[in-house]
Amino acid sequence: MIDIERLLANELPFPPRSVCFPLEPKAAGTPRMESLRSYAIRLSAEHNLSATRLLSELVAPLKRQDDLAKLVPSWYSMKKALSAGLNELTMRTDLDKLTMLPWENVMASEGLYFPTMRWCPECVGEDGRRGDAYEHLLWNIGCNKACPYHKGLLREACPHCGSKPARDTTRNVQKRCPIRACRADLRKPMDGTPTEKDIYVAGNIGRVIADGYQGKSAQPDRLRQVWDRLVFPLFDSKVDAAHHLGLTEGLIYQSGTYTTRLKLKHWAQLSWMLGVSLSDLLLKEIAQIKPHLRPAETGQSKPRVTKRELRNKAFTVARQRKGKKLSVRRLAVEMGVCTTRLRKQLPRMTRGLSQERRKDMAKAREKKITVLIQLAHRARSEGFPLSKRAAQSELKCRSGDYFEGLLAEASRRLNGEYFAF
Ligand SMILES: [Zn+2]
Ligand SMILES: [Zn+2]
Question: How far away, in angstroms, is 104 Cα from ligand 1 center?
Fold first, then answer.
């Protein structure tokens, strides 16, 4: 029992109280999840405030974001500060998940959202019958054109007067057109139907949204493997891949960035091409590439392959390659298992392959050093020391530790006097 007198005398601490009601987000963790904007608007309505006042007087001072005060024009670019501020005001921890923030390491934010507000006319009607209509995060995603539930096109303008609510509107979706002279019914379904692909993509994005809330977002390094194993083999070249996926070639070539900065749109296209759902692509296909990750991530384990089966398969692969050089990595890729497992299960074979490869590499290195020494001699006979650039172009070697190592070794053998560096 709490001792009221001691409590009032400030001897007992009051449990912390939230500034605003910790309102439940609608349909959290499902594809129909509410967007952060819709949440903020509903929260302000609960407190009898306008959304602008909630943001400028409560959230902005908290985050010391002057921009948030005049935020309405930019509330999607400020969603990090906004969700952090709202989390603090309501003492909730999940409001950042009402955006695509859980996926920020994987998807570029630029171009991710649609420039104006959109809605599914039938969802608005249905949600309205159950309570308040609210904006689904799914409608905000730029590459989505359809509602996966009603299989209709999303609407972005009033069917009667054609006015479009701005993306930064402080009004939530409504049943009637906000223009007073119009008041047309916004729940009128769109003419025309989306393609099968549009519906498929919408379903995928819905699943990604649900996964993001449930903390199942994928890691960038695993996505890179998806890219290397599943995507590139579909195309003749990286240039070709860039062309088909609507990415710039630069983006494809910058390893590291191409996967971490990919737009959701491209993942959606990709999943369509591969014929798998986007979350399957992100979570299950990755698990296939790294089989030891599979049980925890997908809830089902691969049938166990015995050591003998693995060895037989390895020999078959080796035989098929007929004398061509085989590395452990190559073998693992062809067998569809990870290198760690291969090394563990077939130690003798992998050790042999590694040794062979090491020998080959040593041989190649020795050859390059010999060439380098010859070059140095020739340069000397012509009367000038060998430059780094000349050596590099002659060896067709990229600059880096490997090249520096070659130079150091050649220089050591010639007592350093032949080189200009
Ligand atoms: Zn709908
Ligand atoms: Zn209207």
Answer: 26
State in Å: Cα 119 to ligand 2 middle.
14
Number of domains in the chain: 4
Is residue 223 located within the same domain as residue 293?
yes
- Asked if pLDDT for residue 221 goes beyond 50, the answer is yes
Nearest ligand to the C-alpha atom of residue 144: 1
Whether 72 shows a pLDDT value over 50: the answer reads no
Q: Report whether pLDDT(286) > 60.
A: no
CA of 164 to the centre of ligand 2 (A): 8
Residue 69, domain member (yes or no): yes
Ligand 2 centre and the CA of 183: distance in Å?
Answer: 6
Q: How far is the CA of 137 from the centre of ligand 1 (A)?
A: 12
Higher local confidence (pLDDT), 271 or 119: 119
404 within a domain of the structure (yes/no): yes
Per-residue pLDDT, averaged over 71-92, amounts to 74
Q: Are 198 and 127 in contact (CB under 8 A)?
A: no
Give the HSE-up count for residue 360: Cα atoms under 13 Å, Cβ half-sphere: 10
Q: Is the pLDDT of residue 175 over 80?
A: yes
Amino acid identity for residue 328 in this structure? V
Question: Relative to the alpha carbon of 127, which ligand is closest?
Answer: 1
Q: What is the distance in A from the centroid of ligand 2 to the CA of 165?
A: 10
From residue 40, alpha-carbon distances to 35, 52, 129, 313, 406 in Å are 9, 10, 21, 57, 62
Distance 133 CA to ligand 1 centre (A): 12
Q: Looking at residue 148, what is its pLDDT? A: 92
Domain of 62, in residue numbers = 36-103
Beta carbons of 217 and 103 less than 8 angstroms apart: yes
- String of b and e for 127-137 (b: at least 16 CB within 10 Å)? beeeeebbbbb
| pLDDT higher than 70, residue 20 | yes
Q: What is the pLDDT of residue 162?
A: 87
Centre of ligand 1 to C-alpha 51, Å, is 26
